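Field reference: "sequence" (input) and "structure" (output). Example, WH2 domain-containing protein:
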Amino acid sequence: MINDNFAAISLKPVASQADKSGPVIEADVKVGTVDRSAHLQAIQGDAALKTTGVTNDRSEPVIEPGVTVKPNKRNSLLGEVRTAGARRSSIDTIKHDFDTISLKPVTDLSDKGAPMIDPDVKIATVDRTAHLEGIAKGAELKPASETNDRSEPKLLPGLTVQPSKRGDVLNDVRVAGARRSSIDTIKHDFDTIALKPVTDVSDKGAPMIDPTVKIATIDRAAHLDGIAKGAELKPAPEVKDRSEPVIEADVKLQPSTRGTLFNDVRVAGARRSSIDTIKHDFDTISLKPVTDVSDKGAPMIDPTVKIATIDRAAHLDGIAKGAELKPASETNDRSEPVIEAEVKVQPNRRPSVLEDVKAAAVRRASFTAESA
């Protein structure tokens, strides 16, 4: 309905706009005007910078009178770098010359690389042939007639050393090895023996039963019939159930809600089944087309309640025209904090700080112009 009303309304064109959202400016404040075109031309054009004839650099650090500044070795370091570069270039030139020079063949060699030996040093000579023959023959060792082995550990008088079981272990290993070899031999014999075909089989693996023992026979058919028929149990004339808990005399038990709970479950199950049936019926029923629609879903309104009517056209015209706001001639700002009488408020240093910032900006601009 609202969309239809908006579509039917023809709005008047806006002839004039009065923007009254600007800030309130005090009467003693003067707003300067800026020539934007001249400002943009000055920005776009090139500025004629003055040439710096004299540079007054005061950026050097302040050195105390008792401090001694050592001379800078930068020039000597650069000289060494240049010398090293020249030496490197000379080495590359010499290497290139060596690569291009054709050397003459050497016909006479005299090795003068022997070490310098002091005259008072005597060098012994070794008969290498006899030495090598002695190594090849070998040495004849004398038999040891007596051995004095002192490598055994010292035992305290109260200690008893048990005999070693190493011999028994070695014998067990030998017996196990022999048994393993016999098992391998038997397995090999079994693999090579051709067994005769079995014509008569008589199972002699039944257990030995004492002759005095009698084995009862069971009629399996009657036994199975008895299991199938089942047994007729006698009715219990009286049951004495002692499994109930002992309840004190002063304890009151509330009635169990199990029956009502089961009834609620049954009702819920019946309702669920009816809902499923209704859903199935709705799915299967073919509805007739609706020709007459009367909406009865409006809310119930008390007869004593009066509903006001709104002139929507006048309301929309008021929105389209807008509201004329009165100019703020006087502002009564009461947002300042309440200061106690005994509290002293120091003057604000913001103006002095702003003056210092402006002076620093001017000084910085003049220094940049002088440097340029």
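DSSP finds nine helices and no strands in the chain.
The CA atoms of residues 117 and 123 lie 10 Å apart.
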